Amino acid sequence: MIRAKKSLGQNFLIDSSILEKIINTTIIKNKIILEIGPGTGNLTSFILKNKPKKMFVIEKDNELASALETKFNNKITIINDDVLKIDETKLFKDKVIVFGNLPYNIATEILTKWIINLKNNFWFESLVLMFQKEVADRIIAEFNTSNYGRLSIISNWKLNIKKICDVKPSAFFPKPKVDSSLLFFHPKENFVKIKNPNNLEKITRVFFNQRRKMLKKPFNQIFNGDQRVLDKFKIDLTMRPQNINLDTYYKLACEYEKLGS
Q1: What is the pLDDT of residue 6?
Q2: Cβ pair 12, 42 in contact under 8 A
Q3: Number of other CB atoms surrounding residue 117 within 10 Å
Q4: First to last CA, the chain
Q5: How far from 65 is each of 69, 100, 103, 143, CA to CA, in Å?
Q6: CA 240/CA 230 separation, integer angstroms
């Protein structure tokens, strides 16, 4: 019997109604599918019933990877590796649909890696991902709310995001101590072009370092009190970081890039 490894953040999804809801989020037939962390293959089985063109899975756990090979034989291509070490842009020639019940301990790291590493061409058609509800709430948060922050800004830069549903702990084995949420991500056709995505990371890191403090200190740290930038983006230094909308953060990253050019 395979036991979930706490060190790898494993909680296997077992609720068939939730599995159905996941696969009904998008069209699978004749598509190339990538599943992250398939675990015991419950979702994998549901996906295969919908006749994808080809299916890949990334599973870090050697024991699970071996069990998946036995269970599915040649129906899937198993990549026994750490998803954080894989360059998906080199792995696929055609766009894929990604499904993932992401390990909660590295879920935000996986999502941020995918977004930051995106070039002008997306390697995926859509993402259907499960997160801890608290993390999902931060991803979809709107400005002027307490959940709004770095993760909201980075996640929404190049992607449209829709919440599908919340999922109770009883849908998993072993049961996590928190609720989960299923999110659907789809690439935006138009987004603010930032030459180096690390500049967006830097801007948001500095601004949200003390999220309850006013903007004066982080703004001066980045822009040295430049009044022109304040006027251009109508920024009041008595505001807090959560009071600035998404688009302004993206344009501030572009403005920051101009300083270095």
Answers
A1: 46
A2: yes
A3: 12
A4: 58
A5: 6, 15, 16, 41
A6: 14
114 and 88 in contact (C-beta within 8 Å)? yes
Rg (CA), the chain: 20
Does the structure show a pLDDT above 70 at 248? Answer: yes
Q: What does the DSSP 8-state code read for residue 215? A: S
What's the pLDDT score for residue 104? 85
- Going along the chain from its start, the domains and CATH numbers come out as 6-187 (3.40.50.150), 197-260 (1.10.8.100)
Residue given tokens 């400005």 in the structure block: 143
**What is the 8-class DSSP label of residue 8?**
G
pLDDT at position 8 is 41
Degrees to nearest 5, angle at CA 89 with 136 and 19: 40
Residue 76: CB partners within 8 Å, gap ≥ 6? 44, 48, 55, 56, 57, 68
| Residues written for the chain | 261
State the pairing for strand pair 96-101/32-36. parallel
- Residues 77-117: tens digit of each pLDDT: 999 999 999 999 889 989 999 999 888 889 999 999 999 88
Residue 189 burial by Cβ neighbours in a 10 Å radius (0-12, 13-18, 19+) = exposed
pLDDT, tens digit, 9 for 90 and up, residues 109-155: 999 999 988 876 799 999 999 999 999 999 999 999 999 999 999 99
